[in-house]
Amino acid sequence: MTDSVLRLAVDDRGEPEIFHSIQGEGASLGAPRVFIRLSGCNLHCKWCDTAYTWNFNGTPFEHEDQIKFDRAEEMLTQTIDAVVSRVAPLNPSGIVLTGGEPLQQQAKLPALIDAIKSECGPVWTEIETNGSIRPTDELIARVNQFNVSPKLAHSGNDLKIAQRADVLARFAELPASWFKFVIENEQDLAEVTTLVRTYRIPADRVFLMPLGRDPETIRARSKWLSDICVKMGYRFTDRLHIHLFGDTRGT
């Protein structure tokens, strides 16, 4: 039995946001996954679509929605055993630990992953991270895929925190890492190019994704961004879950 406690986000019913869906972005796009959304983040992107995991009442963070959330209503704690009891009935072939920023709680993640695999078998394990917290060797040994999304200047974050050289270098050397950059306009591409060259990230492990929280915006940006990917040798990723379900929790 594992009684370590995790901080989780909640869905629209006030339950832990643990759900079975398809991966909407990146290298596993379209694959069935069970998502476990952890609460809390060390970065605060002004366009974040999961701001309910960090933009709580009393915090100084800015967001384009200009909405603050009640921490007590949006965050709950669950033991690892309780999380596993919700994941196991979904019979996952793969799991995604997402957030927020999961690596804020990385000391507890190896035990969570081990417990899920003990109950469910050798499930594929992904972690979605902003790439600003260095993963431990203990965690790396248990993760099949890191979906690393370094934040660019347009996110509104302090880049000294968001783009830590030692952390990005570590992720770049891991075969399990895939990099996803959120693109608002063509000016963002120079920043991507600098990061890719600085950390020697292989072009075929780089995804460009249009910034957008509704299908219309995503489609409009996709038209020119896909052409950029062809020219630069990067991969393009859609936000498939937005097209299918909209900007909603638990999808």
TrEMBL record:
Its cofactor is Mg(2+); S-adenosyl-L-methionine; [4Fe-4S] cluster. It comes from the Bacteria. [4Fe-4S] cluster binds at C41, C45, C48. Substrate binds at I22, Q23, G24, R37, T98. It catalyses: 6-carboxy-5,6,7,8-tetrahydropterin + H(+) = 7-carboxy-7-carbaguanine + NH4(+). Binds 1 S-adenosyl-L-methionine per subunit. Binds 1 [4Fe-4S] cluster. The cluster is coordinated with 3 cysteines and an exchangeable S-adenosyl-L-methionine. Pfam families: Fer4_12 (PF13353). CDD domains: Radical_SAM. It is an enzyme of class 4 (lyase). PANTHER family: 7-CARBOXY-7-DEAZAGUANINE SYNTHASE. Belongs to the radical SAM superfamily. 7-carboxy-7-deazaguanine synthase family. This is 7-carboxy-7-deazaguanine synthase. It comes from Ponticaulis profundi. The gene is queE.
